[in-house]
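Following up on my earlier thread - several people asked me to post the actual chain instead of describing it. Fair enough. Here it is, all 421 residues.
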Amino acid sequence: MKRLLLISALLLVGCGQGQGEEEEEQRRNQEIDAQISDMIRRTDLSANNYIEVSNNVTVLGEKLFLDNRLSGNQDISCSTCHSLTTSGDDIPLSIGAGGSGLSVNRTQETAKVIRRNSSPLYALGQGQSFAFHDGRVSFINGNLTTPTQLSASITSVFDKAIDAQALFPILSNDEMRGQSGENALANISNDEAVLQTLLSTRILSDSAYVQAFQSAFPGVNTFTAGHMGHAIGTFIKNKFNVRDTPFDLYLNGNSTALSLSQKRGLQVFLGKGQCIRCHSGVNLQDDEFHSVGIPHIFPLVSSLADDQGRYEISGNSNDLYKFKTPSLRNVAKTAPYMHNGSLKTLDDVINHYNNVNFSLFNYSLANLATESYSETILLDSNATRNSIRFNIIDNGALKRGLRLSATERADLKSFLESLSD
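Reply from S.P.:
Thanks for posting it. Predicted structure:
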């Protein structure tokens, strides 16, 4: 009898302890929710409530996005470097026309190595003014700027930067067009003529495409490359829309959508981690250009030139080594990171921001996945250029070092993982 009473007492104590732990966690959650609510109130963060659409334009855009005929040698499509599952190609520096395979299994073969990472497509087309890492395409208040001047018959169809962006990989000899002498498109000197020849001889010569264009753009008698770009851009906007993430659910009032660790990570994001300085708004990006001290890696043969980022477009010395802030939506799916894919994991990114000085001056190529390349990938270890890369960082806290603890870094990573759908 005494034994039974002792067991009952122990069970009651255990239940009491369990209930007490639950009450304590609930108290901590309520406390941190109140703190986060106050912090968010001072920002422009908001949930993504855009509902993607599917219509004749997106159907046409997907067909074009997946079609190798858009490339000069008909060996590469948009989806080669922008997977439908991750929106990128999962390797540091992209491999263009002449390469073989997909994702981490892609190999260089006769291709050139592109000097930058294939930018993720998540959340593009949703109000951004600039496209590409250096912003060489912009669409601001209806005014379009592009590397090559295009006629109004093309540009009048665009309603967002991504519409124009979709056409320029097609025009790049290294990305999709191929080298002179390899195919008819590569032999044409005028960029607009390339687009119109592609459209007339490869796309609209296919009756299924003619029907798809007519369905997407009823009442239009003459189709231009602008319709092609708009269709691809609209497909990208809707296919790679990211919503209903745990973070979105939390912002929309579901306080249980984030774990306690993710909430602590959100506090780091909003405060000590400085992330909110650039990753703000509904798309978690400020549509601006920043230098964050990223090491410069480059292919030995394909591109020896220093990558000076936005400065190459603007000519403004204040833009040296600055690159466009990427969206953090689905960031856990878009490794490797930064404009050149030099940081392999989210841990690497967080560690870099935690001590940029150490990360930049002690970067090692041993951490870089280079199996895809037949040419050597090199690191710019020039102390003068690296000092410039570091000194032009415009965030004082980032230059001094964030000094995040191991727990804060783990919580921040946990929060970043909550940005995936």
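The radius of gyration is 25 Å. That should answer part of your original question.
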